Amino acid sequence: MNMKDRWRFVRRNMKRSKSRIFMTVLATAMGVTFLIVLASVGFGLHKSLAKDILESRSVTQLQIGGMEVDGKYQPITDKEIEELEKKDGMKAVTRRINLQQTPLFQLDQYEGSVQTVMAHFPSEIDAGLELSEGRLPEKENEIIVGHDFVKTLVSSEQQETEDMYGEDGMLKKEFQYDGEVIGKELKMTVMQTVDGEQKEHTIPLIITGITEKPARDWMMDQTVFISDSILKEVEAFTKTARGMITQPDMQGIEEPEGYDEVRGYAHNMEEVSDISEQLKDQGYLVYSAADELKSMDVVFTIAKAGLIFIGTIAIIIASIGIYNTMTMAVTERTPDIGIMKALGAHPKKIKQIFLLESGYIGILGAVVGIAVAYLISFLVNLFLPVIVENAFDEQLPEGFQFSAIPWSLIAISVAICLLVTIVSGLKPAKRATKIDVLKAMRREI
């Protein structure tokens, strides 16, 4: 009996008990659907959170907080910057210094106070700083501003009231500056206390660019980025490091050293881990998005494995029905088994026939289960975000998925289903090979 004959025998006998086979396939399909849908939640959340991390920060970026020398914290200076830039795989090293006061900025008849940062523009260019409008500074008095800078400017001719601000604490659109800012002169006024009297110094600046919109909707970038020469002019006026405003009780304060924010950028994500390990060995305090992704991958791998295990239980429960179906099939086909043995069929061939049938039931159940799982996953991603947003009044990130079904999950589900169904058919198949020919011909077991 060749494979074609065995397959024909299986199909013919399965048609005799359509109702029982249908219910068995249905139970198997339900188990597969439960496994895939349950595990797809883990895959979906993992995919969405990983995407959120990749979009919200550069995966090639390393945040370098400083160094630990003899148990003491040491900020990063130009000396360390030079060493970092020489590292293999390091594309660029950006450094920033925060101004130690919040200047007043005036644009036409509007004004506002925001955080001001000294940025090293050559390294920012190498790191791939992108602008939504304009260009990067080329002259000493040129600056760039954050994407949401104009949202902080209030008309100096209008008295500021609470009605001007929305529920989110931001200035309402009708009160915001709505003109062009590229190429405009922006006046920056810094202050210092001298002999108890407050003095001011105004520096004219030219806006050349606006940074790109932050990846996350809730993030705001209102920063003003100045050059080192502008920072030195501020320090020359205040006579303090980073424009710090002195007070009578602030005597003996040490001037800060080094940079407030240093970030390294690798050429690609594969080099981030190597550079990070090297820097940590040298005492640097380093953090990267790759570290976060690695930790998250471990957590979600464990979670997905647990969900697959729970889903497998549903298929194991369905295997009881398969065992029952195959046992009844052996009983009903006892005369056929006797005839095959009388004609010289090898017990191994008879066993393969019943294993083929149980495997066929598993394949049918897997196919139906996969199709239903994809349908449920589609409906979950379509309606659940709407329900969550309406119920909790929270806006989910664009493209957020609660459920995702990769091909690896399909392969795992099919493999588990086939394994369980074949194992369920082993004992009935083995029983079929032990049937006595004479008893079988008398329809007795």
From TrEMBL:
Keywords of the record: Cell membrane, Membrane, Transmembrane, Transmembrane helix
InterPro entries named among the record's database cross-references: ABC3_permease_C, MacB_PCD, Macrolide_Exporter_MacB
Subcellular localization, as worded in the UniProt entry: Cell membrane
One GO MF term attached to the UniProt entry: transmembrane transporter activity
Record keyword Transmembrane present: yes
Transmembrane domains' residue ranges: 298-323, 359-384, 404-426
GO cellular component terms given for this protein: plasma membrane
Domain ABC3 transporter permease C-terminal, chain residue ranges per copy: 308-436
Membrane topology note: Multi-pass membrane protein
Major subcellular site: membrane
Residue span(s) of domain MacB-like periplasmic core: 22-231
Stored Pfam families: FtsX (PF02687), MacB_PCD (PF12704)
Similarity comment: Belongs to the ABC-4 integral membrane protein family.
Listed PANTHER family: ABC TRANSPORTER PERMEASE YTRF, MEMBRANE COMPONENT OF TRANSPORTER-RELATED
Descriptive protein name: Metabolite permease
